[in-house]
Amino acid sequence: MNNLLSINNYYYRRGGAEVVFLEQNKIFENLGWKVVPYSMKHPKNEDSKWNNYFPNEIEYGAHNDWRSNLTNAFKIIYSWEARNKLQSLLDTFEPDIAHLHNIYHHLSPAILSALKANRVPTVMTLHDLKLLCPAYLMLNSKGICERCKGGRIYNVVINKCMKQSIPLSSLIFAETLTHRLTNLYKKNIDKFIVPSKFYRDKFIDWGWETNRLVHVPNFVDVKIARPDYTPGKYLVFFGRLAQEKGVRTLIQAANEANVELKIIGSGPQEEELKLLAAGLGANVSFLGYQSGHALYSIIKNAKAMVLPSEWYENAPMSILESYALGKPVIGANIGGIPELIRQGETGFTFESGNVASLCNTLIKVNALKDTAIAAMGRAAREWVENDFTIEKYSERLQNLYAGLQK
Which of 95, 169, 191, 301 is 20 to 30 A from residue 123's alpha carbon, by CA? Predict the structure, then answer.
């Protein structure tokens, strides 16, 4: 039996990284591996017999007590608690490989020292741009931002990149500076997994070694996501309602194109977007957060899915899920989105952040015959079945693991 130590800040379905983390655990358990999770304690966590080894939850700013906030600030930079508890776990469990997902702020790279000391081969999936951009997104109020390139990370403070807060931005600056000066990530992790070719190229452009980066695309369970190729009457967006997702641009374009749009999700821009749609008189429905069968049902009854992102998306699971359900995708030409769309075959791309470009694309798609939309949905499903299955994903990871094990 092979032993996998699977590490992520949270042990529940909080976001895309957590979904990949949890589903990957199931995949390897089904392959006969012994999978041990390591996360931070949290009230929403799934049950685990390893919970006693999890460090306590960090919620910076959640307390009025300045001492608590100061303690948490130090933990964000380097958590001795997380490192020591992981060492206790390693005293009872000997992994053949450790696979990290998101560890920033909570577990912190302190745990990497324990893995290295115990000679555990370690890989990390780069779900975002945190190791390049202290604020994750390479985005500010004016659009894409790469000001921190070349080590100029002081820009995170100058531009108040973290929630427009100087104290919080200063903390993140201190965190990033410490980690870079000590080289904790690069010297302790053997390989970095990038789900998109775009992220691989971006890390190389920012000075990372090509041979440390391995492209492993995401996956979707095609057995659960059963397709329906019959085109519906509306377009659908599902995701977080935040600036970087470009939903404001989408609502404006949908209104100008006179198409019906259903929006699934919640987030900080939700009320603002509802007011925008109401003010325009747009044919837009807000369906709130949906998951599982309810989510898939709405997507399956749509004509196409729209992904209007205005930041460097990695490898959006929403595209693969839509394809698996037999729906083409209209995506912004930014980040890793274009490499997941075969123009005119599985969907269309448009200029990110450009209302007119998106409007014209929506009009074009809405004018297509149902047979053409269905053909695109079939081509999308076929692509997923060939390249983005659980079997393909596990094969790629096992080959990577095998090359690193003692």
Answer: 169
Evaluate whether residue 185 is within a structural domain: no
**Within a domain: 49:** yes
CB 137 within 8 A of CB 45: no
As given in the structure block, the two tokens for residue 371 are 């047979």
CB atoms closer than 10 angstroms to residue 275: 10
Task: Quote the number of domains for the chain.
Answer: 2
Contacts (Cβ under 8 Å, ≥6 apart) of 402: none
> For residue 312, how many other CB atoms are within 10 A of its CB?
24
Percent of the chain with pLDDT over 90: 90
- On whether residue 145 sits in a domain, the answer given is no
CA separation for the pair 265, 114 (Å, rounded) = 38
Q: Which of 246, 139, 129 is nearest to 198 (CA)?
A: 129
Q: What per-residue confidence (pLDDT) applies to 303?
A: 98
What CATH number did the domain enclosing 91 receive?
3.40.50.2000
- Cβ neighbors of 211 (< 8 A, separation 6 or more) are none
Does 61 lie in the same domain as 41? yes
Q: Does residue 381 contact residue 326 with C-beta atoms inside 8 Å?
A: yes
Decide: 60 and 73 in contact? Cβ < 8 Å. Answer: yes
Could you give the 3-state DSSP secondary structure of residue 167?
Answer: helix
**What local confidence, expressed as pLDDT, does residue 15 receive?**
83
Return contacts of 202-206, CB within 8 angstroms, 24+ apart.
202/129, 202/132, 202/312, 203/126, 203/131, 203/132, 206/132, 206/149
Euclidean distance between the first and final Cα of the chain, in Å? 15
Residue 64 has pLDDT above 80, yes or no: no
| Residues 212, 325 within the same domain | no
Q: Is 209 helix (H, G, I), strand (E, B) or coil?
A: coil
Tokens representing 79 are: 């958590």
| Residues 208, 353 within the same domain | no
Task: Quote the domain boundaries for residue 331.
Answer: 235-387
Instruction: Express each pLDDT in 222-267 by its tens digit.
Output: 999 999 999 999 999 999 999 999 999 999 999 999 999 999 999 9
Give the global pTM.
0.93
How far apart CA 323 and CA 305 sit, in angstroms, is 9
Q: Does residue 23 form part of some domain?
A: yes
Reported as a single tens digit per residue, the pLDDT across 69-82 is 556 677 788 899 99
Question: Measured between alpha carbons, how far is 207 from 169 in angstroms, rounded to an integer?
Answer: 24
